[in-house]
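Field log, afternoon session.

UNIT: design team B
ACTIVITY: writing a sequence onto a fixed backbone
BACKBONE:
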C-alpha cells in the first residue's frame, strides 16, 4: 500500500478520499487554489500545497503544478477524485511517466479509449453492447448535422468527446439550429475539456438514465456492483440518484449489468468506472408495481473513467468501499470477492445539497457564509461534506455544499427516512435546494418511479418549486460578519514547503479603508478575483447603460465589438456559470461603447461586462 496520497481535487470528494486513506493508514496531501485556502479539504489533510490562483485552469487543472506538489510532498500516488483532471488521459499519462508516483485510476490508454465518446462507442459496438444511433467519428461541418437529421430525424444531440453532466452537449431541434449549436458544443468542449471534438446521437425523447458501477483489477477480474437510477435531472445535471432502479425488472437489470462487464472486458479496463445507459420508458402501471421487462430497449451512453459523485449509493447498498478498492487496485491488489458475492441490500438515495435557488431556475447562490450548519444524523443517514459552520461558500467552482445519503430496508422506508433527514438538515446563510428535495419526495411521479430525464425540465409545475422554497427555504440573512475584521497574511517557506499564516484583528477599522466586511466571494481571498481577472474594478469609460453579470462565472466569448449596433435580445457575451452557458443579451437596442471583459476572464456578480448607449 502507498505511504502518501496526493488528492488532486477539492471539497467533499477530496475529504472522502482522504478518509479512505486514513483508514488504510496512508498519509494525505491536499492541493488548493488561492480561493480555497480556508476550505475543509485543506483542514482535513495531513499537509497542503498551493497550486495557483482561483481560476481552475491556473490551479486545479495545471498539470505541472499538481505533479510538482506531489514531488515536493514526496507522495507516491495521486488520486484525482471526480471532475477537474479525473478523466484527463494526458494528465494520467504524465503521472504514469513519473518515477515513484502511481496514478489511482484506469490506464491512460484505457481512459483515452473510453473517455473520448467516439472511441468508446466503437469499443462498445465491437463488444456487442447496444449503442444509440449516431456517429463514431468527430463532426466538423454543420452539413453533417443536417444530413444526420435527415436520416434519423430531429432532435439530435451534439456531444463533446470529453463531456459529461450536460457540459458540451447541445440539442438541435431543426436544421436551422445546426450551425449555432455545433459551434456552441465545440466551444464548451474546448473550454471544459481542452478538446473541441464532438459527435452526434439520436436524441431519445423519454429515457431513464441507468448506470452500472464497475470495479476491475490488474489480474483480469471484473465485477459490477449493481445499477443506480439517475433519471431525476435538470438540464442534464443529476439531482437525486438512487439504487436499485424502481423501474427495472431483475432480468433487465442483469442484462444491463452483463453489458457493462462485456464493455469493460473489451476495453481492458481496470479500477473503478461507471457505464451509463439510456433505457427507453414504456407505458406501464407503475403504481401497481409494473416494471420494465427484459425486452425494453437500452443503449450505451458513455463511460465515466473515474469515481462518480453518486458512488455513495452503491457503497450503501453493497457495503463495499469503492474508494478503498480504487487505492487497493492501484497498489496491484486483487479483488477478493466474486460476482456472486455482490449483494444489494435495501434501497439508497443520494441528495446533492447545492447552493442554488431551485425556484429561480436553480440559479447558483452568489456566495455567503454558513451562519448555521447542522447536518442530520441517525440510523441510515450518511453525510459526505467538507464544510463547517462559519465557513464561507467558495463560488469559483461548483455549487455543491454536501451530499446526503440515506439507506433504508426498502424504497418506502428510504423515502420516509430521507424526509426526516431533510427536515433535520439546518442550513442558514445561503440558499440551498433542500426544499426542492422535500418536494420531490412527496411528488407522485417520483414516488411511483415513473419520472424520466425530461420530468423536471418539461413536466413538473415550477410553481410547486417556488411554493416549496417559500415554505421550507432557509434563512439567508445574517451571513455577514457582525464586526469588522482586519486580516494580515504572511507567507513563509520551510524546506521549500509553503505555509500561509493569517493574523486576524477583530473590531478594528481596516488599514487605510472604511469599515465593513471584506468583499470576498472566494473563501476569504477575493474569490474569482484572485486570478487577477475580475471585472469588478473596471472603470466605466463608455457612455450609456451598463450590462452587468448576474452571477459569478467565466467569460466564454465576447460576441460584439465597440461601435457595433445591437438590438434588444442580441447576445453580447456568453458567461459560463456552474457548468452551464448563459447568454447575456441586450435589454434594448443601441451602440456598444465599451467592452469591459475578455474571453477567459473570471467575473463576479455585478461586474460590468458591456456598456450600451
Amino acid at each position: 500500500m502507498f505511504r502518501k496520497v496526493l488528492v488532486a481535487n477539492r471539497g467533499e470528494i477530496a475529504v472522502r478520499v482522504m478518509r479512505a486513506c486514513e483508514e488504510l493508514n496512508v498519509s494525505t496531501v491536499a492541493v488548493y487554489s488561492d480561493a480555497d485556502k480556508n476550505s475543509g479539504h485543506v483542514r482535513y489533510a495531513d499537509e497542503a500545497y498551493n497550486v495557483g490562483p482561483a481560476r481552475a485552469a491556473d490551479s486545479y487543472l495545471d498539470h505541472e503544478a499538481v505533479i510538482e506538489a506531489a514531488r515536493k510532498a514526496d507522495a507516491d500516488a495521486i488520486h484525482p477524485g471526480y471532475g477537474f483532471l479525473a478523466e484527463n488521459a494526458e494528465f494520467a499519462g504524465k503521472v504514469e511517466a513519473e518515477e515513484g508516483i502511481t496514478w489511482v485510476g484506469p490506464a491512460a490508454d484505457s481512459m483515452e479509449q473510453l473517455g473520448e465518446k467516439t472511441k468508446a462507442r466503437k469499443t462498445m459496438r465491437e463488444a456487442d453492447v447496444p449503442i444509440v444511433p449516431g456517429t463514431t467519428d468527430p463532426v466538423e461541418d454543420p452539413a453533417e448535422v443536417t444530413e444526420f437529421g435527415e436520416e434519423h430525424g430531429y432532435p439530435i444531440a451534439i456531444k463533446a468527446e470529453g463531456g459529461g453532466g450536460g457540459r458540451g452537449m447541445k440539442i438541435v431541434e431543426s436544421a436551422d439550429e445546426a450551425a449555432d449549436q455545433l459551434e456552441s458544443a465545440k466551444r464548451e468542449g474546448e473550454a471544459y475539456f481542452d478538446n473541441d471534438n464532438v459527435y452526434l446521437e439520436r436524441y431519445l425523447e423519454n429515457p431513464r438514465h441507468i448506470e452500472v458501477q464497475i470495479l476491475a483489477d490488474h489480474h483480469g477480474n471484473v465485477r459490477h456492483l449493481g445499477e443506480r437510477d439517475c433519471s431525476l435531472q435538470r438540464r442534464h445535471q443529476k439531482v437525486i440518484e438512487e439504487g436499485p432502479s424502481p423501474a427495472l425488472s431483475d432480468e433487465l437489470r442483469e442484462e444491463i449489468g452483463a453489458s457493462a462487464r462485456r464493455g469493460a472486458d473489451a476495453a481492458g479496463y481496470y479500477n473503478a468506472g461507471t457505464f451509463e445507459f439510456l433505457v427507453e420508458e414504456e407505458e406501464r402501471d407503475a403504481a401497481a408495481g409494473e416494471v420494465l421487462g427484459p425486452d425494453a430497449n437500452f443503449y450505451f451512453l458513455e463511460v465515466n473513467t473515474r469515481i462518480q459523485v453518486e458512488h455513495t449509493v452503491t457503497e450503501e447498498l453493497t457495503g463495499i468501499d469503492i474508494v478503498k478498492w480504487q487505492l487497493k487496485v492501484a497498489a496491484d491488489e486483487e479483488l477478493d470477492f466474486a460476482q456472486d458475492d455482490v449483494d444489494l441490500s435495501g434501497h439508497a438515495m443520494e441528495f446533492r445539497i447545492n447552493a442554488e435557488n431551485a425556484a429561480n431556475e436553480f440559479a447558483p447562490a452568489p456566495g455567503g457564509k454558513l451562519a448555521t450548519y447542522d447536518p442530520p444524523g441517525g440510523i441510515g443517514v450518511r453525510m459526505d461534506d467538507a464544510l463547517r459552520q462559519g465557513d464561507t461558500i467558495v463560488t469559483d467552482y461548483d455549487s455543491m455544499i454536501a451530499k446526503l445519503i440515506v439507506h433504508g430496508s426498502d424504497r418506502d422506508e428510504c423515502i420516509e427516512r430521507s424526509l426526516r433527514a431533510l427536515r433535520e438538515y439546518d442550513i442558514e446563510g445561503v440558499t440551498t435546494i433542500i426544499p426542492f428535495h422535500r418536494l420531490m419526495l412527496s411528488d407522485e411521479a417520483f414516488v411511483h418511479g415513473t419520472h424520466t430525464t425530461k420530468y423536471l425540465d418539461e413536466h413538473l409545475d415550477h410553481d410547486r418549486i417556488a411554493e416549496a422554497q417559500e415554505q421550507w427555504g432557509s434563512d439567508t440573512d445574517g451571513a455577514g460578519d457582525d464586526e469588522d475584521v482586519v486580516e494580515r497574511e504572511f507567507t513563509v517557506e520551510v524546506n521549500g514547503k509553503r505555509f500561509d499564516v493569517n493574523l486576524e484583528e477583530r473590531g478594528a477599522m481596516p488599514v487605510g479603508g472604511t469599515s465593513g466586511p471584506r468583499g470576498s466571494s472566494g473563501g476569504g481571498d477575493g474569490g474569482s478575483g484572485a486570478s487577477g481577472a475580475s471585472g469588478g474594478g473596471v472603470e466605466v469609460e463608455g457612455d450609456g447603460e451598463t450590462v452587468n453579470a448576474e452571477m459569478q462565472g467565466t467569460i466564454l466569448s465576447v460576441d460584439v465589438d465597440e461601435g457595433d449596433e445591437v438590438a434588444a435580445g442580441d447576445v453580447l457575451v456568453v458567461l459560463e456559470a456552474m457548468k452551464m452557458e448563459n447568454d447575456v443579451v441586450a435589454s434594448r437596442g443601441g451602440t456598444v461603447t465599451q467592452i469591459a471583459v475578455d474571453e477567459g476572464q473570471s467575473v463576479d456578480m455585478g461586474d460590468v461586462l458591456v456598456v450600451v448607449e
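LOG NOTE: Confidence is low (pLDDT under 50) at residues 478-483, 506-536.
NEXT ACTIVITY: expression trials, pending approval
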